[in-house]
Amino acid sequence: MKKNLNERALTMLTDFYEITMANGYFKYNFQNKIAVFDMFFRKVPDNGGFAIMCGLKQVIDYLSDLKFTDDDIAYLKSKAIFNDDFLQYLRCFKFTCDVWSVPEGTPIFPNEPILTVVGPVIQAQFVETAILVYINHMSLIATKANRIVRASKNRAVMEFGARRAQGCDAAIYGARAAYIGGCVGTSNVIADQMFEIPAMGTMAHSWVQMFDTEEEAFKAYAETYPDNCVLLVDTYNTLKSGIPNAIKVFNEVLVPKGYRPKGIRIDSGDIAYLSKKARTMLDRSGFEDCTICASNSLDEYIIKDLLDEGAKIDTFGIGEKLITASSEPVFGGVYKLVAIEKNSEFVPKIKISDNVSKITNPCQKELWRLYDRDSNKAIADVLTLIDEVIDDGKPYVIFDPDNIWKKKEITSFRAVKLRKQIFSKGKCVYVSPSTAEIKEYCQQQINTLWSEVTRFDNPHKYYVDLSQRLWDIKNQLLVNNRK
After folding, report:
1. In what helix (H) or strand (E) does residue 23 lie, and over which residues does it extend?
2. What is the CATH class of 5-141+329-482?
3. CA gap 355, 43 in Å, rounded
4. CA distance linking residue 247 with residue 240, whole number of Å
5. For 233-244, how does the pLDDT look when each residue is reduced to its tens digit (9 = 90+)?
6. Looking at domain 202-315, which of 2.60.40.10, 3.20.20.70, 3.40.50.2000, 3.50.4.10 is its CATH number?
7. Which pTM was predicted?
8. Which of 138, 310, 374, 453 gives 54 a disulfide partner, CB atoms 3.0 to 4.6 angstroms apart?
9. Count of Cβ atoms closer than 10 Å to residue 89 Cβ
């Protein structure tokens, strides 16, 4: 039976200003005014070329169960700043917005609307925090996991970070995100229960220390798990004790019963050197099929260095630097108002800043990805007005939205809308794929990116462009503001 962590009541997972603004909107009779909010992010973590969309399933679960309990209302009443009519409105609260989103597992890029909420402003504003919590965290971990997996050059990567995660939710949802990003499994058992992610793990150093000798510990483990025997060989001395004892147990316990050892794990020391020596010792003993797993505070940079040094490693167990994305632990997604309805028409709204990167793209928009018809590689993403259609039967001109003289005419391409409708008038109309299906889709989509975009050092900037009509509106708003 699968567990469901979302059975908790999380309506109050919000910033206090969402409620104070909602009270103000209600006071001025704005509660039915339709607003459009976009979620987007401004920078790919670790100076990478792309990020991975993740966390949508958790957003769906949250939005599907939005209701204020009596305890919630009593808490808000105790603050003595909210009027009774507003509290009664919350008591009868029902989510009725439309939501569009990029599917989980899709490569995403800065400044494009990966999720949009359209509906009554109190509702659309209120859900900001939860949306950002889930998508920011899980997109960060999925992106980090994929960097590590790509650095491993097709070697299996296991997520081992539960005990170092920043809280229970981070451990559970981080394991899900890491799996979507490319990991083969997790040490986190509840993540297997909830999301059917393969749970993996063997022994800790304490197992070895519990027995009088290392050989005795290895023998007991091999007898208990003969068909999946992976021994941790660095408790005392990897080369002088651990590997010789492992080989002895393999020969005396497994081989006579018709089993083969699955592997050894090295968790400390000079892993590149130890792995090379270990490989030689195992091969000379007839265990060429015995794999070597490395762990111990690894990340994509250390993995790359290990493999460049010729380390003989078949699999990796990655903990703290994956589950916390410690090299850059903030994804930076934001949620901004881009339009409001007035007299049955949507009026564009823009946030202007002295920091150019913080100027938003106004209007209700559509997000397109353009693919080369011959190679099926992604060329660019384009933001258009919601009613625009990109005709991929004729040439299309894209241009840099900041440096508009940089133009390119694209021919022989296909244009695909990236986003799916998730909610219609508050009802979920989207069937979420399984976690395994999202993982497979993610790899398929990454394969559509040019290697120049996926490389670690100085990746090519993937362009997110504006249609001419959208650029004209944005430019006019900026001109009007200067006046």
Report:
1. helix 16-27
2. alpha beta
3. 14
4. 12
5. 999 999 999 999
6. 3.20.20.70
7. 0.96
8. 138
9. 17
